[in-house]
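Hi R.,

Here's the chain you asked about this morning:
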Amino acid sequence: MFAFRRSLTSTVISALRVSRTNQAAVSGSVQRCLSTQTDGEVRIATILKEKFPSASSLKVVDISGGCGAMYEIHIESSEFKGKRTIQQHQLVNQALKEEIQGMHGLRIFTDVPK
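And here is the predicted structure, written out as tokens:
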């Protein structure tokens, strides 16, 4: 009886581990493979494209898992030339003033094209 219980318990635990692993792999691959942007990412990218038309590179990523609470922005624009990093970030913050009110956090990475 004890051997049967131990065997059944081991089987159930193994099945749960496999299930968790598969869920993590599926959710990770769905997020990465589809490479579609969330509505928030599209909205923020559109605003930044309008505000920084000379941007040579722009990437907006929802790093909150899709709920829109936190974003990471990478933007490279000649409009940042001659400005300190804090001034560059202030320009981005100003452009996204309305959107930032509904966010939990924002990571900004700015650069000037080489």
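One quick note: The chain has four helices and three strands.

Cheers,
M.
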